[in-house]
Amino acid sequence: MITLLLIITLMSIFGKCKATQPEQTGPVTQCTYRESGMRHRIVYSYKQQSDGTCTLTFNNRWDDNKEKTIVVPASVGEDLWKMAKQYNMLKYKESYRPRMDVKDGIMWHLDMTFTTGPKLYTGGDNEWPGGGGIDSLEKYMRTTWNKYRPAITKFFYYLSETTAYPIHYAIIERDAEGAYWMTYAANCPLSEARKFQLSEDAYNRLYQIIEDHDMHDYQSSYEPEFMVLDGYMWTLEIAYEKGTPGIYSSGHNARPDEYGLQRLEDFITKQWEQNKGNSVPAPIQNNY
Length: 288
Fold this sequence. Notes:
Elements: H1 2-19, E1 25-37, E2 40-48, E3 54-59, E4 68-72, H2 75-86, E5 107-116, E6 120-125, H3 133-148, E7 152-160, E8 168-174, E9 180-185, E10 194-198, H4 200-212, E11 221-222, E12 233-240, E13 247-252, H5 258-275, E14 280-281
Parallel strand pairs: 11-13
Antiparallel strand pairs: 1-2, 1-5, 2-3, 3-4, 5-6, 7-8, 7-12, 8-9, 9-10, 10-14, 12-13
């Protein structure tokens, strides 16, 4: 009888504790999503600061010092709360793993903090909860970052060798409606330059090239170790909105990252090949 009374008492205490456990309520005040593989890593982190300002931090490097932070509206926290409920994330297990051992692949982690209630922590190694919630969350974070990151207001790239005309002369500018236009001349007088509108996808690819190669860290000038009397010259200038520091870099027979500038040149050439049929004359008066 004493044992039974003790069990009933303990159950009563446990039941009261469980009943008083606060449920999660929104909005989300903090959310971090990490994803990594053998040669792949992304981290998105949303946070509502103490003063009410909401920020989103993004990093696709293994170096945490390379993270970038932008201000986003508080509606992001509301959207994340809606997603948590829509995809039943509050019921996610703490860990997901496949039946068979996988030596490589994708590892992911997600944690969320809510206005009230316990924190959500979940993660997996080559296994995900059903319903597509993690994919939707990653896509939402990526789309939000692209939407609110500082926009490029002007892009300029120039490359020439010992010829009469530049190999590449490209200016990309944003008009009053937010559309981006490229003015381009290659192996011809600048008076024969033409312009065309860039797609949103092309603009995002350009932004990604700049980010991938850390062009914000480029020096202002590059010169070869030994003097070269002839050769090539290049200049890169990028301006951003919202007071974000721009980029200015140039070189003579030397480059900071051979592949980075090559990707820019390939991007410019591809855009011209795809859009030259819709281009219009846009003569340039500057001499370089």
